[in-house]
Amino acid sequence: MAKIIDRAKYKIVIMGDSDVGKSSLVKRFVEDAWSDEKPANQSKGVYVTKEITVNNQTIKFEIVDLAFDVEATASDFSGAKGCIAVFDYSSPDTIQNVRNFLGIADRFVSDDGFLRCIIGNKADMEKKVEESVIETIKTSLNVSKVYECSAKTGTGVKEMFEDIAKSLIEQNAPVDNNKGKKGNKAKKEKKRGCLLL
Question: Which NCBIfam families does this entry report, sorted A to Z (predicted)?
Fold first, then answer.
């Protein structure tokens, strides 16, 4: 059994159009469950936590699930290390709107180490988003990774969050308490992102 040498907390904000499956993705990740019923208090947004272990480190995700019709504020992004913009793979219009959601994040966060991701949900349904469109947005937003994801079946969800955790560990280099300051590493100079489908 691997020895856990550190524990880090990473706040991330998840955004997207109505009905793209933001809350379903969070539910699948946190509870490994899915429901076709809309969550209560959908208009208020949700705050949840989940711990996972990657690279011998326990990572505690603090997830702010912003509802579509809630105006984002600086407090939503205060202390956040990354954001996720979700689109629906079966709804072509939603892929274009991720630009707006990532733009909201950029309005509140100027940290070069801030992780900006896009998730394409509902990959279990008929895919109506063309690969050329995905590639264009991937290039224009300077993101590097592409995954398919389905909150309903669970495909790719766990792997997605594990990948995000690894990226956050690398970019934020949490202190190894056993080594003190020697455990610190320089932050990445270039802003990185990932496109998660």
Answer: small_GTP
The strand pairing partners of 193, in sequence order, are 116
Which tokens hold the place of 152?
């309903």
Each residue of 58-68: pLDDT tens digit?
A: 999 999 998 87
Note the pTM of the prediction, 2 decimals. Answer: 0.81
User: What's 44's DSSP letter?
Assistant: G
Sheet architecture: strand order including 46-54:
46-54, 57-65, 6-16, 80-88, 115-121, 193-196
* Alpha-carbon Rg for the chain in angstroms: 16
Give the C-alpha separation, 120 to 85, whole Å. Answer: 9
Say which CATH superfamily domain 6-196 falls into. P-loop containing nucleotide triphosphate hydrolases (3.40.50.300)
Per the listing, tokens 């159009």 go with 17
